Amino acid sequence: MSSRVWAAIAAAAVGFGTSGVATRAALNAGVPPYTLVTVRALGGALVVLAILVAMRRPVPLDRATWRNGLTFSVFQIALPYVLFTLAYQNASAGFVGLLAALFPLGTATIAHFALPDEPMSAGKALGLLIALAGVGVMLLSGDSGLAEGGRPVLAFGLGIVAVVSISVSGIIAKHQSHHYGVLEITGIQSALAFVWLTVVTLFVEGTPAVPTTWAMVLLGYLVLMGSVVPFLLFYWLLRHVSTTRASLIGYLVPFVALVTGIVLIDERLEAGIAIGGLLILAGVMWTDRAERKVVPRRAVVPH
User: Fold this and answer.
1) pTM of the prediction?
2) Which of 67, 188, 229, 294 has the most CB atoms at less than 10 Å from its CB?
3) Where are the domains of the chain?
4) Rg of the Cα trace of the chain?
């Protein structure tokens, strides 16, 4: 892969990985979970809208773009945001970040049946299973990364549903990647997700209170670096590399979340998480090697 592709994967992983730490910090600062995800969706929509206005690009009105935006708003944003945020209430950012390692496994499995040009080779299957074994070790150890109050099984259940949702959405996004613009689809999915999440938030939590200054800083970071930038990079990657290769972001997210969680919010590195992380790293290396063998001459789609 080119240096630009690797840079995009790394930057997206940093954004998604640190968003877990920022989410836990915001929850600790008193921001209710549904309010948190609703603000993230609203902020993402406003930022992208501002970019479109500055670039004098009109909002697309075609049905295909809005149909995709509607699908992604549910399966790429609303549902995963809620589930992962609730998972952060029951486990550390490092633990929940490790669940992102299941994203490439889910994506590669679904892509095998949905995308004819992305078959599940034996090499990729072995690498993905090694990574999955790492997550299994982490889960069976019972380690949550929290000093007290952790519920890793519940966090895992919430996370696995979110991973399936994102994997399905990623396959659809790849299949439809030539029918929407990166900026436009990011803004539309965020705006529609804000609508759904607002209804749910008002029903579950009522009218939210005004957040503290620190909570507003964290929410701002989640909007920009946890939502807008990573999604823009993810959709850009889908235009240039395979779905499985783009999903390598999910392999890097756990390590970003683990390190930043330990350094910034005093989470713990426990044996199960450490051993699971090493297995995930081995799976990343093996899967990347297998992917290069499967698609050595894949044409790059011009931007």
Assistant:
1) 0.79
2) 188
3) 3-294
4) 18
